[in-house]
Amino acid sequence: MLQKLQDYTAGDAYPFHMPGHKRQLENADFPFSIDITEIDGFDNLHHPEGCIKEIEEKAAKLYRAERAFLLVNGATGGILSAVKAMTHRGDKVIVARNCHTSVHHAVGLLGLVPEYYLPDPPKGERTYRCFGGVNPGKLDRLLKEHPDAKLFVMTSPTYEGICSDIRSIAAVCHQHGVLLLVDEAHGAHFPFHDSFPESAVSCGADCAVVSLHKTMPALTQTALLMIKDSIPEQNMQTELAVFQTSSPSYVLMSSIEYALDYAHLHPDAFEAYLGRIRKLEEKLAKLKKLSLLFHDKGEALQNVFAYDCGKLVIAANQADISGITSANILRKKYNLEIEMAASDYIIAMTSVCDTDEGFDRLANALLEIDSECVFVQKKNDTPFFAALPERHFLPCECETVSAKAVPLTEAAGRTAMEDIFAYPPGSPLVVRGEVLTKDILRLITEMTAKGVNVISSQNTYPNGVLVADL
Predict the structure, then answer these.
(1) Strand, helix or coil for residue 60
(2) Quick one: pLDDT at residue 385?
(3) What is the structure's pLDDT at 379?
(4) Looking at residue 81, what is its pLDDT?
(5) pLDDT value of residue 12
(6) Are the folds of 32-265 and 395-468 the same?
(7) Burial class for 451, CB neighbours closer than 10 Å (0-12, 13-18, 19+)
(8) CA–CA separation, 226 vs 235, rounded Å?
(9) β-pair partners for 314
(10) CATH 3.40.640.10 applies to domain 32-265
(11) Can you list the pairs that 282-285 forms with residues at least 24 positions away whose Cβ atoms lie under 8 Å?
(12) Rg of the Cα trace of the chain?
């Protein structure tokens, strides 16, 4: 693998995907010389008193949290730890349906009772085929229907960069005695420039997890978990020791410190980054068939409270090509690797480490592709879900249900015994225990046919799907 990585890095491919350092930082291929364990003077991740504690205090100050914890098992380890620390087995939790698969894993693993909040899609002149933000009023009504709920888990920003009104959502949750956990994985850069939305904990969230490696100059697997004083510090520290390795990488932890210091000491770098984005927006305003979504400040959109301008969502809604085709052209013809391709749009992730040359290459490639496309008036897209499917079993109950694999053609009306989701972003189309309707199966089949990467938690799909053998 090392040779393959070296060959790829030596090439001309430009990364419009995570990690956020964009391979721009000079260093050895493998920093063996600084790879150590918990020797004297280097602190203990699960009982920090020295240099690790200093990094965590620095993070807490920058993100305006009461306490911050280093994560070396990615945001996933933080999500699992946070859900465990904020609930007890059997608790009812409200989960935004577009949450990452790690949230759904936590619900099943910890024996929780989920009720799902279904975010509405962004709406303007057209309805967008992605989830929008959480509506505080809609959440208030749902919490009134479930007065025994203990926790609300949501994602902001979404994979597409759409942010919710965390301040209002936190107020609604706390009015009902419910804790708020925000998966803010894609918003690690928010505190470092006023053009970005505010960070979740600074807006009142009880807990938030940010994934540094996604948009900051930090190594893959690095993240942070932040809490306010509503969460007992020792409870969270205890659960992190369960879900994180007992042999944390000091290389990864040092890269967390590097990212925090970089952000704090180089505000000029973020100002230059915003300048690149504004220049790119001006160039892409010339697109005629492709379009850069959500960056138009004059477009009034429902279900979008704020937007991360660092996310570039390019739609092919009026072009004779799909998002999948667009990504393939960018890769094969222009040597540009983007983060994600859906059936009708692509996502290019940017960061403070991107270069002028990289932004110019992307803009020029998209303008050239746009000029070669044929205009097609496509009908308005529908969201992923019109309604949530019926549930026969709680996720935690599925472990004791006999299951078998059947072809998709025989699955309608059966109960799924595995999660099925598009990856990325990893939000489930079906959660185990739910009924596989004809509409859901049609959506899964259509997404696969268009080249979207659809997988299942038990790896049954695409050869079939695991269902209850009843």
Answers:
(1) helix
(2) 64
(3) 63
(4) 98
(5) 79
(6) no
(7) middle
(8) 13
(9) 292, 346
(10) yes
(11) 283/363, 283/367, 284/314, 284/363, 284/366, 284/367
(12) 22
Count CB atoms within 10 A of the CB of residue 232.
13
Give residue 7's pLDDT: 73
Residue keyed to tokens 């309608």: 412
Domain boundaries defined on the chain: 32-265, 267-372, 395-468
- The pLDDT value given to residue 386: 67
The residues of the chain scoring below 70 in pLDDT are 1-2, 4-6, 8-9, 25-30, 298, 378-386
Distance between CA atoms of 74 and 153, rounded to whole angstroms? 18
What is the structure's pLDDT at 155?
A: 98
Name the token pair of 465. Answer: 């799907």
- Terminus-to-terminus CA distance in the chain, angstroms? 45
Alpha helices in 292-335 (DSSP H): 323-334
pLDDT digits 0-9 by tens, 247-258: 999 989 999 999
CATH class of 395-468: alpha beta
pTM of model > 0.85: yes
Alpha-carbon span 391 to 431, nearest angstrom:
9
Q: In 186-290, at which residue ranges do the beta strands (DSSP E only) sit?
A: 207-210, 223-227
266-320 confidence digits (pLDDT tens): 999 999 999 999 999 999 999 999 999 999 876 778 999 999 999 999 999 889 9
Using left for φ > 0, alpha for ψ between -120 and 50, and beta otherwise, residue 331 falls in alpha
- Catalogue the E-assigned strands of 316-407: 336-338, 340-341, 345-349, 403-406
Place of tokens 């949290």: 65
Number of neighbours of residue 27 by Cβ within 10 angstroms: 11
- What string of H, E and C letters represents the secondary structure of 163-211? ECCHHHHHHHHHHCCCEEEEECHHHCCHHHCCCCCCCCHHHCCCEEEEC
**Helices first, then strands: H and E counts in the chain:** 13, 20
At 117 the three-state DSSP class reads strand
Query: From CA 108, how far away is CA 87, in angstroms rounded?
Result: 13
Q: Could you tell me which CATH number the domain at 267-372 has? A: 3.90.1150.150
